[in-house]
Design brief:
- This protein has one domain.
- Helices cover about 35% and strands about 20% of the residues.
- The protein contains two helices and three strands.
- Strands 1-2-3 form a three-stranded antiparallel sheet.
- Strand 1 and strand 2 form a beta hairpin.
């Protein structure tokens, strides 16, 4: 991504998916999640995407009271949250 160029949501999503596909093609199946996360962040850096990794966020969703923390795998360009999964079979919860 060129410096100063702002992508719309669809363009950004398309380019992020392209990075993920590149990682999948080059790394292949069978590794733990951190391997894919490391490779994915390398690919994002090559493309010039700003991102935050393993960001902890507060969850306040029960009667306005904080009920816990959640760690997001990646937030890309302050817009897209990516949760990486390394699984053998997709279950309903993954959707």
């Amino acid at each position: 991504m060129k410096a100063g160029k702002i992508l719309d949501h669809n363009e950004l999503t398309e380019k992020i998916i392209g990075c993920a596909i590149e990682v999948h093609k080059r790394v292949g199946p069978g590794f733990i999640e951190t391997i894919y996360e490391n490779a994915f962040t390398i690919e994002l850096q090559k493309k010039g995407f700003p991102f935050e990794r393993q960001k902890e966020v507060t969850i306040q969703q029960y009667d306005g009271v904080e009920v816990g923390k959640h760690r997001l795998d990646l937030i890309i360009a302050d817009t897209i949250v990516v949760e990486l999964k390394a699984i053998k079979n997709k279950a309903e919860i993954h959707l």
